[in-house]
């Protein structure tokens, strides 16, 4: 069994996944240590999409019995291929596949925010009964979580001459900031609610705006998150 004793990722430049890893077999025989590699490829996908991470190495199916392949993320194993048999770790079961004929690619379905990180593909080949490293590939996976376009709902008139509207959106990350604007000036919203799903880590946000009906208005509900934003306009 392969045991990961230490592994750290330390990006040093844009697009880099410089990497250090110490790997030992269960009998403590050193396989390789302090490996520092640039990122071989980068993949950016949205939450709930599918990601294909390539090991960039092909093995003819009849020769698989001479190889061991490990896909891992940080300190955890994703899947292994030992003597041609694929084993998927519990966290990735039912949503992770391996495409052996396509560069030993790992396919992750229904992406979650927690899937982001640096994935390592290690290929070992037997040499007189001893497995030695044949190939190493690092793939950086980034996960986007974009908020839906806001929905503005007319909540009616709580009192004479006053109207109430609600702006809401969900499904994004990181934590959003909501603003009500008119002619570029920020207005005072009411009943702001921000919540985060503990399982998906995605946010939902809503806010009300009460305004006077005595004149025409054009309101903008603006949601900013990270370096992204979405907005919706409400004319009256």
TrEMBL record:
It comes from the Eukaryota. SMART domains: IG. One of its GO terms (cellular component) is external side of plasma membrane. GO terms for biological process: cell surface receptor signaling pathway; cellular response to lipopolysaccharide; immune response; negative regulation of T cell proliferation; positive regulation of T cell proliferation; T cell costimulation. GO terms for molecular function: coreceptor activity. It is found in: Cell membrane. It is a single-pass type I membrane protein. Residues 49-137, 150-231 form the Ig-like domain. Keywords: Cell membrane, Disulfide bond, Glycoprotein, Immunoglobulin domain, Membrane, Receptor, Signal, Transmembrane, Transmembrane helix. Gene3D superfamilies: Immunoglobulins (2.60.40.10). Transmembrane segments: none annotated. It holds the Pfam family C2-set_2. PANTHER family: T-LYMPHOCYTE ACTIVATION ANTIGEN (PTHR25466), T-LYMPHOCYTE ACTIVATION ANTIGEN CD80 (PTHR25466:SF4). This is T-lymphocyte activation antigen CD80. It comes from Loxodonta africana (African elephant).
């Amino acid at each position: 069994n392969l045991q990961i004793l230490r592994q750290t990722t330390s990006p040093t430049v844009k697009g880099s996944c410089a990497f250090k890893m110490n790997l030992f077999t269960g009998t403590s025989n050193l396989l390789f240590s302090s490996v520092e590699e640039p990122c071989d490829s980068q993949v950016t996908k949205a939450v709930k999409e599918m990601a294909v991470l390539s090991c960039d190495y092909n093995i003819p199916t009849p020769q698989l019995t001479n190889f061991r392949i490990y896909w891992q993320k940080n300190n955890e194993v994703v899947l292994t291929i030992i003597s041609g048999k694929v084993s998927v770790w519990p966290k990735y079961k039912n949503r992770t596949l391996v495409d052996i004929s396509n560069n030993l690619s790992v396919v992750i379905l229904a992406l979650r925010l927690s899937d982001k990180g640096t994935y390592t593909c290690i290929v070992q080949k037997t040499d007189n009964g001893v497995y030695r490293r044949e190939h190493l590939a690092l793939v950086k996976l980034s996960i986007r979580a974009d908020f839906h376009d806001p929905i503005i709902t007319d909540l009616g008139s709580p009192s004479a001459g006053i109207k109430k509207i609600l702006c809401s959106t969900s499904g994004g990350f990181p934590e959003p900031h909501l603003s009500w604007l008119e002619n570029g000036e920020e207005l005072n919203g009411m009943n702001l609610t921000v919540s985060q799903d503990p399982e998906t880590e995605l946010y939902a946000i809503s806010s009300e705006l009460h305004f006077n009906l005595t004149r025409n208005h054009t309101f903008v509900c603006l949601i900013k998150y990270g370096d992204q934003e979405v907005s919706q306009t409400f004319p009256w």
